[in-house]
Amino acid sequence: MAVGRARPTFPYLEDDAAGVTLFESADIVDHLISCYGGGVPLPPPSDFFLPSTLLTGWLPTLLRPTRGGAVEPRAHTEPPAQPLVLYSYDGNQFCRLVREVLTELDLPYTLRSVAKGSPRREELRSLAGKSTAPYLADPNTGAAMFESADIVDYLCRTYAD
Predict the structure, then answer these.
(1) End-to-end CA distance of the chain
(2) Are 70 and 155 in contact (CB under 8 A)?
(3) Which of 107, 102, 94 has the alpha carbon at shortest distance from 134?
(4) pTM for this predicted structure
(5) CATH number of 84-159
(6) Which H or E element spans position 85?
(7) How many whole angstroms from its chain centre is CA 30?
């Protein structure tokens, strides 16, 4: 949550390396592209936000309106000692299922994006033997697995009452 605000505001980005905090989607995207994307300019917002989020954001949200939107009462009150690590990418419905449950259980996690063409795909292949997503690694228990159904089951058994 942003300091000095009465309630959380999302999206919210803290970039310690650049010393900035940002609240607006367009500002966050501009910052990420300019600082970490080699300065590649964005297309106009009308060409970028609507088509890029229609199928991967709005439609799944309409079809699953209550998933990933709030913390479940059955979530443990104490977070795990170390954040979980999720290898995932936007646009993959199975990765989305896992991210929804991580949100519902209020679990801190590090997201490692492994979209097609990403150099992290090779990182995942060397770590786990293949590069399919989602892949979850839990440093708290030593568990590591592919398959969204297995991951969701594991998260619920391990981190929900």
Answers:
(1) 25
(2) no
(3) 94
(4) 0.65
(5) 3.40.30.10
(6) strand 84-88
(7) 19
Two tokens, residue 73: 């009462």
pLDDT tens digit sequence for 96-123:
899 999 988 989 999 998 988 888 889 9
Radius of gyration of the chain (CA): 17
Residues 6+ apart with CB under 8 A from 86: 95, 98, 99, 102, 109, 110, 111, 112, 134, 135, 136
CA dist 34 and 18 (Å) reads 11
- List, by residue range, all CATH 3.40.30.10 domains of the chain: 84-159
What is the C-alpha separation between 126 and 122, in angstroms, rounded?
Answer: 6
Structure confidence at residue 93 as a pLDDT band (50, 70, 90): confident
